[in-house]
Amino acid sequence: MSAQAYRPGWMEKPKPVTQAGKAVALTAVVLLVCVPFLVIVSTSLASQREVVANGGWVLWPEHPTLKAYRDILDGGIVTHALGVSAGVTFVGTLLSLACTVTLAYALSRPGATGGRPVLLLVLFTFLFPPGMIPNFLLVKELGLLDSYGSLVLPVLVNVFNLVVLRGFFQGIPEELYEAARLDGAGDLRVLWSIVLPLSKAALAVVGLFYAVAYWNSWFYASLYLESDHWPLQQVLRTYVVAGSGLTDQTLGDGTVNAPQTVQMAVLVIATVPILAVYPFLQKYFTKGVLTGAVKS
What is the pLDDT of residues 181-197, one digit of tens each? Predict the structure, then answer.
């Protein structure tokens, strides 16, 4: 019997019918993702007349305009909320990465003092997370109410990200650690000069996870912050979900802005930053997640 007969099914060349089915399925998925986003962007660029004439949604505006964007970004609450979200995301991601990397490195080294009890304690918090009331009481006792620290400190270290990085660090060849030790390098030097350069994929993935979590966070803001300190996602929820401020408003030039247009413009502003960052990290995404998960 020829060697080709022993080839498993997954190694065989797909039949034309199978390839056509995959192409149709992929096209359907792309349309399901892209068409709604196109409608949102088009509606945000449409005029009031087009929005009303099309029942609130526009697939392709005849006369695109940035009026809705100018209205909401003209020094109002959306501009302030955008700055709050950007600041919290940047600072929170840096702090979370620093804490997660150092803790994961300490827990990945064999023989670390108290390593196993600390790891079990961290995993216990993952299995039995605290509820909303204990979190609120803790934030209140620490004096973090109505401060941006309440959006960062309670979620500073994510257990899943910690486990991924720990597994990745454990997969680095032990010979590299031993060679650095022989050269007189301490833990910080080993972490900075050897571990971090070899862990760019995992760091990019974990950093993206943290950035998306901070950027999309709105629940803690509704609990801990006053409305004038809200981040963008909480403002977006107020515009789109709660319905606050969605009545037609007469602007300074005498025209009336379409509420649906304003909603979609805020939604686009809240979505585009993450979409702009993701393509630069995509090449690290699959590699970092799979490597860390397998080695952990």
Answer: 887 778 788 888 888 88
